[in-house]
Write a structure and sequence with these properties.
globular; 54 strands; mainly beta
Length: about 950
């Protein structure tokens, strides 16, 4: 009987320096018992339920290895029963088993020898499960380590009850013997495989002379690979042996080897993963699952979803609460909030933009990400300054076992990555990517097009990472950046606007240097300080009249302390700062606003231009605190608060927040939250020339109530109802526009308008239902169905009726899945249906003889019409080749497979008497290759 175990692994930017004196006081607090249990996700091959998919807080640097096995005592009458029991073992920092839970009942073998055991099959199998649990409590493992420190872990252990056909005693004293040593690595990635069973069989007729008693017998011996993937058989009879490795997570390996007398035979086996996520271990650490509606995605899901080309942040657009952007744009519109109300952050530091031109790619390599946490609302006190949603990207620690890398290319761009160890405690990663749309576009552009690209759309990004861990200290250093350029010449003026012609140039870029130091003071107190410094640049020039140039230096800093006060209370608090210093030069009209038709369709020739050139210096500090409390074993309540100060507006907000999670049983959890959130107005709205410098911060209240249900086998349902009320929103006071337009002066030959009358007078409301039915990554399949039912409305001026938001989408449905057919082929699809966006209709125009243009005349209220619904099918096929030392993947992705002509907007003729739909992207095939070491 042999067991088997697994361990799977001024307003145009947004300085001041933070005072950290309070940190030293917190670090002197004496905490209670240590806290920080780390658990591992169940192996996908076992089919067992996994822990909740919270974002990882640490990396398993040493897996536990079984040192002392205790054989279970079989109950009477079950001596001839074969079965398998899966146990979830909780292993303490000393390697001893603290608890064992039977995760799945034992299963009888195919010949069902328990039929004559004298007890019922069910009762017998339950008795074997109890015996296996009792024996496992006496096991001893080598201590596991997370981030180089001993830690508690959980693992799934497979205990096999087997019956030997014959028991023989083989004397090896008279036979020449040798040693067989080996190493197990994952094929393609060369990662060492721990806890894998290796079986050695000496077949019939292989016994040396003199061992007649053992001749014609098959002797079977088992061992397990250690944390480095090594295994060893000692005192092996010289001759031919059969090595078999039949792990459920990998394709079977059978090999014949010859053991030489008095020598050590070395072998190495590369095991090919059998499933989408086989062999992966996800460490779930101190970041307690607390947020009401957070969704966490794994790298396996990110890379395989059709329609995203393996890009991380584009996957967010498939989750509940996220609006679809016309033409696949780069904005994030979450739960009915304006595009600027949501943000993307890297390790909690907000970045200025998340996507390159047109939303084709995000600005950070997906292969360097550990996880993505998406908060559509009711996020904790650690995040602020945004009232929409937050996308928090966590950067992984580069690989430390050896040098890894890849080269990839598809229809849009090409990229590469290199990562590996530096010394004993460090690791590095280098990555870069560049598009070649500028090279390909001229071949697809029609000759009759009145468009001449001087510089066609071109983008690139880069990342450099150094990660150092030693003892209680961890140091991270990142450098990353992005740059986009587009220049084209419109030789023929527009029929609607004669001024719309000439050269257009757009440049967008930024870079950041990021440094963080994390220090574990003791088992109860942790401290982390991080600083980010960089530059933003936004430049636009169009026609002969429009100009915008904004350059700034950005500084963000965060200092955080967590104190585990006792088993039920944890205090987390921190300082959050952002500062901007720079200059801006503008010659442009008032920018159009959400729901404001002042510029909608209005010819550029008729608009008044505003000229600005100034420097600015802004700083926005904040303090936050939250208390994670376990009221009972099943109820967790997290009150918190955040205080923000805006230096430019001289406005302070105090935002209290509270969340709860109540586990009614192992499958069903209720959750909810309510909190206040503030949002800084757009830069132009508080500018003295473009807006009103006396306006205040915008505010909102988030409420969410929902439930999670785990069906088992990796299937779960997450549902949320939400209501968001927005007040003191900045809108244009139309009653004062006429007076403002009369206050015109002449500056450098340009007509200038001063003091646009914005006020904190608008309000909004968003309410709806979000559902996510999700199948976690298993050996063959993953996918989800996402549905959002929502209504987003605005009222811009007191007394005006409610109107729908520009991106109000009543129904949003996404169905996607990825299936691994065999070791070579994978197939995936995504289908989306979304209600069409609101639209403001026109009916004719008023002719202006001075400019020879037509100003459109409204045919109804703002957003009183709606475009037809959107639906689209995306397909993906992956072909994998796995070699011993590297892997190659080729994929074909087809976006809009049935070539749906989705209406994305309206185009009018010169006098607005007729219109037609502007269709979205047609069918787009993309072929890609990825070679990985």
């Amino acid at each position: 009987m042999k067991p088997e175990h697994r361990a799977r692994p001024d307003g145009w930017g947004r300085l001041g320096l933070p005072s950290l004196a309070w940190v030293s006081l917190l670090l002197q607090l004496v905490a209670g018992t240590a806290w920080g249990q780390v658990s591992t996700e169940a192996d996908a091959a076992t089919g067992l339920p996994a822990p909740s998919p919270a974002a990882p807080a640490g990396i398993l640097t040493r897996a536990p290895v079984l040192l002392n096995f205790v054989e279970a005592v079989r109950p009477a009458g079950l001596e001839a029963t074969e079965a398998t029991v899966f146990l979830r073992l909780q292993i303490g920092v000393d390697g001893r088993v603290k608890d064992a839970v039977v995760e799945r009942p034992a299963g009888a073998s195919s010949d069902d020898r328990s039929a004559g055991a004298g007890v019922s099959a069910v009762a017998g199998l339950d008795a074997l499960a109890a015996a296996a649990r009792t024996a496992s409590l006496a096991f001893t493992f080598s201590p596991a380590e997370v981030d180089g420190r001993p830690a508690e872990v959980q693992l799934v252990y497979r205990y096999d009850f087997t019956v030997a056909e014959r028991t023989v005693e083989v004397s090896v004293g008279r036979s020449p013997v040798g040693v067989l040593r080996g190493e197990l690595q994952e094929r393609g990635s060369r990662k060492p495989l721990a806890g894998v069973t290796v079986v050695m069989t000496l077949g019939a007729g292989e016994s040396p002379a003199g061992d007649s008693g053992a001749r014609d017998l098959a002797v079977r011996v088992e061992t397990y690979s250690d944390g480095d993937g090594r295994f060893e058989f000692i005192a092996v009879r010289a001759g031919r042996v059969r090595i078999s490795i039949n792990d459920p997570a990998y394709y079977r390996v059978d090999d014949d080897e010859t053991v030489l007398a008095g020598q050590a035979t070395e072998v190495k086996y590369y095991l090919e993963p059998a499933g989408l996520n086989a062999g992966a271990m996800i460490v779930v650490g101190k970041r307690v699952k607390k947020d009401v509606s957070r969704q966490t995605l794994t790298l396996t899901e990110i890379r395989k979803i059709p329609g995203t080309s393996g890009d991380a942040l584009k996957v967010i657009q498939n989750l509940p609460g996220v609006a679809r952007i016309p033409f696949g744009g780069a904005q994030l519109i979450v739960r009915g909030s304006n595009p600027g109300d949501s943000a993307a952050a890297i390790n909690r530091h907000v970045i200025p933009l998340a996507f390159h031109f047109g939303g084709l790619r995000s600005v950070f390599s997906s292969s360097l990400l550990e996880s993505i946490d998406f908060y559509p609302g009711n996020f904790g006190a650690e995040f602020g300054r945004f009232s929409g949603g937050i996308v928090d990207v966590r950067v992984k620690r580069p690989e430390t076992d050896r040098l890894h890398g890849y080269v990839e290319a598809d229809f849009f761009d090409a990229g590469l990555l290199l990562e590996g160890p530096v010394g004993e405690h460090g690791a590095f990663a280098l990555a870069a990517r560049r598009s070649y749309i500028d090279v390909l576009l001229p071949f697809f552009l029609p000759e009759e097009a009145d468009l001449d690209f001087t510089i066609a759309p071109r983008y690139y990004d880069y990342q450099a990472i150094y990660d150092y861990k030693h003892g209680r200290h961890r140091l991270k250093l990142y450098l990353f950046g992005s740059d986009d350029v587009l220049t084209f010449l419109l030789s023929k003026p527009s029929d609607v606007d004669p001024a719309f012609r000439g050269e257009f140039k757009n440049e967008t870029g930024f870079y950041r240097g990021y440094l963080s130091w994390a220090y574990r003071v003791n088992d109860a107190v942790e401290h982390e300080l991080s600083v980010s410094v960089g530059r933003n640049h936004l430049f636009f020039r169009g026609t002969e009249r429009l100009f915008f140039d904004n350059r700034l230096t950005a500084i963000t800093a965060r200092d955080e302390v967590s104190v585990q006060m006792n088993d039920r209370l944890e205090l987390r608090t921190g300082f959050d700062f952002e500062g901007f210093v720079g200059d801006v030069a503008i010659n442009a009209p008032m920018p159009p606003k959400e729901g404001d038709d002042q510029n909608g369709g209005t010819p550029l020739s008729t608009l008044k231009l505003i000229r600005v050139h100034r420097t600015f210096n802004l700083s926005n500090p904040a303090l936050w605190m939250e208390l994670r409390s376990k009221v009972t074993d099943d109820l967790q309540v997290i009150p918190g608060a955040r205080v923000d100060y805006d230096h430019r507006l001289r406005d302070t907000t105090i935002d209290p927040r509270v969340q709860f999670r109540w586990a009614l049983d192992e499958a069903l959890t209720l959750k909810g939250g309510v909190g206040m959130y503030m949002q800084r107005p757009l830069p132009d709205e508080s500018d003295p020339d473009f807006g009103n410098p006396d306006i205040e911060l915008e505010k909102s209240v988030h409420t969410t109530l929902g439930a999670e249900y785990i069906f088992g086998d990796g299937l779960s349902l997450d549902g949320n109802t939400f209501f968001k009320y927005m007040y003191e929103q900045v809108t244009l006071d139309r009653g004062e526009v006429a007076d403002a337009l009369q206050r015109e002066t002449q500056a450098a030959g340009a007509t200038t308008t001063r003091g646009i009358p914005y006020k904190n007078q608008g309000k909004g409301r968003v309410y709806g239902l979000e559902l996510l039915l999700r199948k976690q990554v298993s050996d063959r399949f993953f996918g989800w169905v996402s549905y959002t039912l929502a209504r987003a409305e605005r009222s811009d001026v007191p007394g005006e009726p409610w109107r729908v938001f520009d991106f109000d989408q009543t129904h949003s449905l996404t169905m996607l899945g990825q299936y691994k057919l065999n070791r070579a082929w994978e197939f995936g699809l995504r289908w989306r249906f979304v209600t069409g966006n609101p639209d403001t209709p026109y009916d004719g125009c008023v002719y202006d003889s001075d400019t020879d243009t037509c100003a459109p005349r409204l045919a109804g209220g703002t957003n009183s019409a709606r475009l037809p619904s959107f639906h689209q099918l995306d397909l993906r096929v992956d072909r994998n080749w796995t070699f011993d030392l590297w892997k190659l993947t080729a994929y074909l992705e087809i976006q809009n497979a049935y070539n749906r002509q989705n209406p994305e907007g309206m185009q009018y003729n010169y006098d607005y008497s007729d219109s037609l739909f502007i269709s979205g992207t047609p069918v787009i095939p993309s072929f890609g290759l990825r070679g990985e070491l």
